[in-house]
Amino acid sequence: MSLFLSPLSSAFLPNPIITFSSPTSIESSSVHSRHNSNRVIHKRSRPYSPFPSCSLQPKVISSKSITTKPSTSISLHRLSTTTIRCISMTAEEVSSLEFQGSLSYSRAYWVNGSLIAWNVDIGDGSCYLYASKTANLVLTNDGIEGYDVKIKLEPDHSGLPVNVIEKFPHIQNYNVFKVPFGLDAKNLLKCQLAVVAFKADGQCSDATGLQLPGVLDDLFSYVGPLGAVFSKEAVSLYIWAPTAQVVRACIYREPSGGSPIEIIRLEEVNGVWSAHGSRSWEGCYYVYEVSVYHPSTSLVETCIANDPYARGLSSDGKRTLLVNLDCDSLKPEGWEKLVDQKPEFSSFSDVSIYELHIRDFSANDHTVNPDFQGGYLAFTSQDSAGIRHLKKLHNAGLTHLHLLPTFQFADVADEKEKWKYLDTDKLATLPPDSDEQQAQVTAIQDEDGYNWGYNPVLWGVPKGSYASNPNGSCRTLEFRKMVQSLNRIGLRVVLDVVYNHLHGNGPHGDNSVLDKVVPGYYLRRNSDGCIEHSTCVNNTASEHFMAERLILDDILCWAVDYKVDGFRFDLMGHIMKRTMLKAYSALHSLSKDQNGVDGPKIYIYGEGWDFGEVAKNGRGVNASQFNLCGTGIGSFNDRMRDAVLGGSPFGHPLQQGFVTGLSFQPNGHDHGVKIVVDSMLAASQDHIQVAMAGNLKDFVLTSHLGEEVKGSEVLTHDGLPVAYALCPIETVNYVSAHDNETLFDIISLKTPMEISVDERCRLNHLATSIIALSQGVPFFHCGDEMLRSKSLDRDSYNSGDWFNRLDFSYETNNWGVGLPPKGKNEKNWSLIKPRLADPSFKPQKNHILTAVENFLNLLRIRYSSPLFRLRTANAVQERVRFHNTGPSLVPGIIVMSIEDGHEGKPGLAQLDPTYSYIVVAFNACPGEVTFTSPALRARTLQLHPVQLMSSDEVVKNSNYDASSGSFTVPPRTTAVFVESRGI
Q1: How far is the C-alpha of 682 from the C-alpha of 191, rounded, in Å?
Q2: Contact 389, 481 (CB under 8 A)
Q3: What is residue 338's DSSP assignment?
Q4: 451, 652, 734, 904: least buried by Cβ within 10 Å?
Q5: Longest Cα pair distance anywhere in the chain, in angstroms?
Q6: Residues of the chain whose pLDDT is less than 70?
């Protein structure tokens, strides 16, 4: 079907303000040359760059400026994702340019079918929209040349509509121009587009390209089938590509190489392209060939792309696999009954989360079949050391296993034979503070089998490197076996999803998918039209309808087709709140009868950080900590982490906190004068207490200043409220995660060098106990319970198995395996080196075994009473109290009580059949502390039975004197006292 009826047709608009230039031909070459009198413009490709640049440059070409005299010319480079446009100009000609317009940018927004917003004032001048089907627009001082269509736009002084401002708040003050009524916008959107402003005398004053997501949403929003759809007789393909000029599907028999067995031209209906083939396609592979104008190169490109809705892939994502996820051969035995075999829990307040990387779990576990190590099937080895460890955690109470990214990501080859390996025996002989280990690790870090996976390529397909065969459907079957096996040992499975960014962009990159299919739509762009990179690379735009739809469809696929039990959203604050609420609603609407999924049991949480272009609702109401209150969606509580450990991951590494010795055991870092340091400690205790009460905005407590305040009135050092939640399950408490140093490492860094490893181990347990015994959802990084070390690496995402090793035999915690990789750690090597070199820092096996037992005991204590897992804000406010508060507080100790009611008596309802009152005392001091509270007199409190039976002889020295209400707590110890019913 032809885009234009003819050069002289009025197909776009039935009125005379449209004009046409002479027709031009479409060139199939990736290098286009356009000859027009004395002007020659070359567009040529360059190597892919992940960071497109909008550098300052002259932004217009004078008709006399093109020259072939190299001795007197300079080169102007238009930097973009995939090409450089080079134009030769003399220096004199550059200085004579008369205005600052440029087609290298996209500073105007086509926001709906009838309006264009542009931050330009034309005064009594005029504005025109230009289009070229073959991407031949050229900007001159006189305007635009090379166009097929020219359309006059009229100013609209009423401003942008409310719904547009809600979607694009960052352009709310832009000037508005009306698109003429009856314009065939759908065909124009397949062209290179530009708007140009003219002065009253007809001279150009500005020019720019357009950003199209608003109008695409307005005209092409679609809710029908996408991806490969299997019926009894046919396989149908559907792809949303409204700006594409042609779409073909190339069908292959093999995962790589060879010629297509069929090339099908898809037909378009309202932006959706489709084709229908026989069921013989099942098991074949395909790619799309999309001919589309790409703003990053200013060319009509032929892009080879996978299906954005791919559910299977060949190795390294070369081709999309036509896989039917409902095929019986891809379902493990008993798969359909799994929904009724899921581990039970009655409330999200009962959730506890253990964060784990798939490769870490088994790559170093020699009790796992070598063919399964580092992959999905390792979780089916029911008697491996790692599985035995997970069973211990579950038996103590742990409910959820959080897996770091498991979708198809970049930077790890799917085919294991491509990986490079280190001589680990040789590395083990090197000194613990040597820089040789990191040098060898980083030399192959992009060619080994390790990466955390926060570099998405396709969200809806399991990662091939974790499968026994990355081609075919193995990854689907093995992923399902992993979920089923974990469920059967009592653990629900959480997926780490990364919808905030994509690894690739542009028309040619191997890892680019969405930006090939609908260029400029899925990736969020700034006011110049350049891709935003605040999340690392290539921020996605969930505020756009079809981007949001893709996220929702993808998450439902994982929930229904893979039966996962929860989702952790990476950089959730960069996703719109609306999208998160839709995800929550869609998941919780799933039912056992209709979907084989108990949707209301799926827990959602994520990183609600508020930064970058989305900060303060800059792109709409985003899913930040403060915006999510009242939704039932959890967000990580960094206030707890920073108060417990000290400082922040972005501050000085020696800043101390409640657990790491602030005020009591200085480490040499200048925290200020004594009165300031003491105030910092007292404020940290306030922050921790608010967090332990579920980080509830309305929880009332007494601050260290003696004031009755709400959690939202307790402020961080930068003036933000500590509390942001309206119910406990909206707070995910943690002190460590995959990001930054492990808990043991950060304690070893922040505490004074002279303290013993025994003391550091106790502090590790103390920090973990604060998380385990708080209201809200506790979150633990895998290995913290084993004193896990990464040799002080602060960002081990690409540090290989060497720095990320886990040892479920408990022989070693991986401390002192060399200086951590130079890139993120070198500036701290002077602090790190003496610690690694000191043999007294390294825990022994007995330390690790004790740490594991202590952690299991914490879980047992948490799950011994529902009082540690209160479900509502009212319940927390009524039952939780903090006793060491006000100006006379004893520094370094936090004392919390939780009260229960009694059956048949007025007042609080009875929740716990075993304990009627609980007191927890956290002593971070290096010495024993006695704390007395008249409110806690005459109780029949005893040390918790779990602690009485533990091998920790220190905690057994904890004491309670009922006559005075005094508690004596040993150094660096958490003591739990309980009042049993019937005593």
Answers
A1: 63
A2: no
A3: G
A4: 904
A5: 102
A6: 1-100, 983
Q: What is the 3-state secondary structure (H, E, C) of 234-253?
A: EEEEEEECCCEEEEEEEEEC
What is the predicted pLDDT for the residue at 140?
A: 87
Question: How far apart (Å, rounded) are the C-alpha atoms in residues 438 and 824?
Answer: 11
In the residue annotation, 607 being an active-site residue is answered as yes
Q: How far apart are CA 104 and CA 295, in angstroms?
A: 8
User: pLDDT tens across 333-349, in order?
Assistant: 999 999 999 999 999 99
pTM of this prediction? Answer: 0.91
CA distance 652 to 672: 14
Q: Is the sign of the CA dihedral 574, 637, 831, 428 positive or negative?
A: negative
Task: Tell me the two tokens of residue 753.
Answer: 């060098």
CB atoms within 10 A of CB 902: 12
Residue-level pLDDT at 100: 58
| Cβ neighbours of residue 594 closer than 8 Å, sequence gap 6 or more | none
pLDDT at 296: 96
HEC assignment per residue over 415-451: CHHHCCCCCHHHHCCCCCCCCHHHHHHHHCCCCCCCC
Q: Which pLDDT does position 36 carry in this prediction? A: 31
Instruction: Quote the CA–CA distance of 892 and 664 in Å, as a whole number.
Output: 8
Nearest to 712 by CA among 633, 625, 797: 625
Residue 141: the pLDDT is 80
What are the two backbone dihedrals, phi and then psi, of residue 461, each rounded to the nearest 5 degrees?
-130, 130
For residue 474, the model assigns a pLDDT of 98
Q: Distances in Å between the alpha carbon of 38 and those of 101, 299, 674?
A: 22, 22, 76
Q: Which of 634, 499, 480, 639 is nearest to 560 (CA)?
A: 480
Neighbours of 74 (CB within 10 A): 13
Instruction: Choose among 266, 213, 274: nearest CA to 243.
Output: 213
Single out the catalytic residue among 350, 515, 565, 607.
607
Identify the active-site residue in 301, 411, 570, 730. Answer: 570
Q: Which residue in the block uniquely carries the two structure tokens 């951590």?
A: 820
Domains of the chain in sequence order: 108-218 (2.60.40.1130), 220-329 (2.60.40.10), 636-787+843-980 (3.20.20.80)
List all residues 6 or more positions away from 518 whose beta carbon is below 8 Å from its beta carbon.
Answer: 216, 240, 241, 242, 243, 244, 292, 546
- At residue 983, the pLDDT reads 65
Distances (CA, A) of 324 to 105, 227, 501: 42, 11, 27
* Exposure string for 216-227, b = 16+ CB within 10 A, e = fewer: bbbbbebeeebb
Enumerate helices (H) and strands (E) in the chain, giving the number of each.
Answer: 23, 43
Q: Residue 752 half-sphere exposure, CB side, CA atoms within 13 Å?
A: 13
Residue 9: its pLDDT value, please?
A: 33
Quick one: pLDDT at residue 142? Answer: 81
**CA neighbor of 798 nearest in space, from 817, 824, 819, 816:** 824
pLDDT at residue number 297: 96
Amino acid at 879: R
Radius of gyration of the chain from Cα atoms?
A: 31
C-alpha distances (whole Å) from 628 to each of 420, 613, 758, 830 are 44, 18, 41, 41
pLDDT of residue 45: 29
- pLDDT value at residue 402: 98
